[in-house]
Amino acid sequence: MAINAPTNRLWWKEPIHSIELGWIIIAFLWGLFMFFFMIAWHFIGDQNLSTETYRITTDQFQEKVEAFADEYAVKDANGEAVEINGTPLVAPPVGGDVYILGRLWEWWPAIELKKGQSYRFHISSVDWQHGFSLQPVNINLSVHPGLEHVLTLTPTKAGEYGIVCNEFCGIGHHTMSGVIRVVE
Amino acid sequence: MGKTDNDAQDNSDEPLAPADTPAMQRILDNPFLLLFIGVTMPTVLYLLWGVMEVASIPVAY
Amino acid sequence: MTAIEIGHIGTSGAQYQYRTCKFTGRRVERSAELLIRANAVAAVVFLAVGGLFGLLVALTRWPAVQLLPADWFYLVLTGHGANVLLFWIIFFEIALLYFASAVILGSRIATPKFAWLGFLLMIVGAVMANYAVLKGDSTVMFTSYPPMLAEHWFYLSLILFAVGALIGVIVFFATLVVAKAENTYNGSVPLVTFGAITAAIIAVFTLASGAIILVPTWLWSLGLISGIDTLMYKIVWWGMGHSSQQINVAAHISIWYAIAAMTVGAKPLSEKVSRFAFLMYILFLQLASAHHLLAEPGLSSAWKIVNTSYMMYLAVMASMIHGLTVPGAVEAAQRRNGYTRGWFEWLTKAPWGNPAFSGMFMSLVMFGFIGGITGVILGTEQLNVLMHNTIYVPGHFHGTVVAGTTLAFMAMTYIVVPLIFQRDIILPGLAKWQPYIFGLGAGGISLFMMGAGTLGVPRRHWDIAMTDAANAYEFSPAAYLMMGLNGISAIFAATGGLLFVLLIVGSVLFGRRLDVPGAKLNFPLHDDSKVVSQYGSEATFKLPGTVTLVTIFFLTFILYYFVNWKYLSEIWQFN
Ligand code: HEM
Ligand SMILES: [Cu+2]
Ligand SMILES: [Cu+2]
């Protein structure tokens, strides 16, 4: 009984039953497979989270984002900056850098990308931690103040995408939102 | 009754002589040894290694 | 009464008060018994509080109901996490450690005064934490990620609680020393005690990590330290936060073995294999704290892969071993009990009317199928990005810690009350149904939260309609449906939880006394629990039922694993 001391005091010398042994081998091999598959995906897969990260002050990062938003702001026919529900829309050049910041309670600015093109995203927060949750794609990242996370994103479908916040960031957490627009 | 390696069955009440017990069983019967390795493993592989990674994040400028 | 001299090892006898349990034949020492009672009662009280909070949370997340206003929702959610995950679980685990050391080894408990000090600190910590949270200025979730700041009482309360728990763990180890010195057992400790040792070892790392991170955070909240590195905090905090879940795993697996032994007379198929599996836990299980850090910046893939895979999934292998050996031991015992027809008579004729058994077996199945498989998926470096911080994550861990751990702990309580409180379970006709109601609800909330998470619904989120957001994202109607079904399941879970609390409190207060001659149990234990079981020749056992079960499990696992990779391969590319 499991609540009594082993009846055979030299239990380590008992042979292992074949059912148990077989299952142990299966479990071990399956574990090895899953382990190596994670490594293999770094070579064969197109979805691997970049680990490129820099320390940066929140002020420095905000300056970068603002400079980026000024430079590539989308203008309408009258030269007025285009906004989506009050958030300026920014269209970075293909293959270029994209800066996006999380703050209480918005993702700023709104971004316009071209389908099938790659962009270098720089994501950080200027106050608390936030959760960058791109929907309905379902890419979910943690965002820290003071850490600039750099990753390459390649949108594969056109459309209007939302960014939700999925790290609790205070009473307005559920109002935190952002937009990424992907055009053909 | 001298014990050899083939002596798989032992139900007696006498205290086990350490020499009779397989090494692996002696390890598993020693909670403080297990405690030591059980704390060391995650401390080294998870905590220390992880903290070193954070400490070595480069500065942007 | 209980004259106890601290540190008086070796003078067993008159000084300590023992009784012999008439149902199990074990020696039970008085102060061990009182400590188990106190910790178990505290556990149930905090489960009641935390479970109520859980219901309020779930009803708020039901979009059609949205019970609480936003500020209360986040406050109550903070309280839910702390009360159930920390207080209910850890109080119960301390009771379990005392049970697995003193009662199972027939020993006295070491240094009972010190153990009471630990209990007191835990109570003070838990009450203070509830006070801090309910006061309203510590709505930071129980993870309290900086730079969000709670009131300093909040951190201090958790530190006190952790110190108290650490004292309990130390008393457990000291009791092992006492039992050995006083020769209360012969040879190796029983498997259940070995499982408890595993849990206690993990607890030491857990509580140490907690201290390392909470003490500086507390100093920061007092203004004595200028800041806390957010990523460093997360690493060390999850050394506590996730490892504490691994205490649960080791603890509830020990309970599976214990209940299987006490209800159907099961004996481990092989001591060697089961203990080896626990050893894998001791070595590798705690590395899985990295599961929470797979979507973080700044940590290398090497660190993530080594840790998140528990070193090549050796701890997953261990769980799969227990997943075979527990039902296998039940099957072997039931076949010896005479239920030998077909593949599954052992299962269909199992004591399903005994809440200890039914709770145990449902815990086993749901922990494996819901909690276990999804845990491995979530813990895969790349797949994690699909689900990180969505409500899939709470879905997963309600499969582990509610349908798995909590249900197992409830099942064990149906044994602890008669044996340790010496009161019989009241209303057996109702008690019989309790695990099913709770199990159904717990399984439901797990699955529906996971369903909603797959559709991108964020965790810890008051309003997925995002009514006040500038650029509201519109979640699919299916997501709303899932959150509604989650709310309905929550009502079941809460009903089952409430029933449990009432039955246990009622039994402890009004249950028929069992310390009288001739008393019988409403839910009898297996006869063999009185004697050292010698059954059968393990060399020839056949376990067709168990083999079928684990085969189904394995195929489900593989299928679900690859479905997720397929899904991942179709989304935007990122690297
Ligand atoms: C009546 C039973 C329960 C119900 C209805 C319930 C429901 C929920 C719901 C709906 C959430 C919120 C998910 C979110 O918005 O992010 C949640 C969170 C949580 N639950 Fe439960 N739960 C129950 C019991 C338990 C138990 C017994 C435990 C632990 C043993 C537990 C541990 C947690 C934890 C740790 C969280 C996360 C809190 C956070 O995100 O800070 N729950 N629960
Ligand atoms: Cu946010
Ligand atoms: Cu947020």
Question: Helices, strands, pairings?
Answer:
The complex is a heterotrimer of chains A (184), B (61) and C (575).
Chain A: H1 18-44, E1 53-55, H2 58-71, E2 83-84, E3 87-90, E4 97-103, E5 106-108, E6 110-114, E7 119-125, E8 130-135, E9 139-143, E10 147-154, E11 159-165, E12 177-183
Chain B: H1 23-28, H2 31-55
Chain C: E1 18-20, E2 27-29, H1 30-61, H2 70-105, H3 112-135, H4 152-181, H5 191-221, H6 230-241, H7 243-264, H8 271-284, H9 301-308, H10 310-336, H11 345-348, H12 355-378, H13 381-387, H14 392-421, H15 428-431, H16 434-454, H17 477-510, H18 544-569, E3 573-574
Antiparallel strand pairs in C: 1-2
Helix pairs in contact in C: 1-2, 1-3, 1-17, 2-3, 2-4, 2-5, 2-7, 3-4, 4-5, 5-6, 5-7, 5-8, 7-10, 7-12, 7-14, 8-10, 9-10, 10-12, 10-18, 12-14, 12-16, 12-18, 14-16, 14-17, 16-17
Bound molecules: protoporphyrin IX containing FE and copper (II) ion (2 copies).
What does this structure look like?
By secondary structure, chain A is of the alpha+beta class. Chain A contains two helices and twelve strands, in the order H-E-H-E-E-E-E-E-E-E-E-E-E-E. Chain B has a domain at 21-61. Helices cover 51% and strands 0% of the residues of chain B. Chain C has 575 residues and is an all-alpha fold. Chain C has 18 helices and three strands. Chain C has a two-stranded antiparallel ribbon with strand order 1-2. The longest helix of chain C has 36 residues, at 70-105. The relative contact order of chain C is 0.10. The chains are: A alpha+beta (184), B mainly alpha (61), C mainly alpha (575). Bound molecules: protoporphyrin IX containing FE and copper (II) ion (CU) (2 copies). One copper (II) ion (CU) binds at residues 130-131, 165, 167-169, 173, 176 of chain A. Residues 102, 130, 165, 167, 169, 173, 176 of chain A line the site of one copper (II) ion (CU).
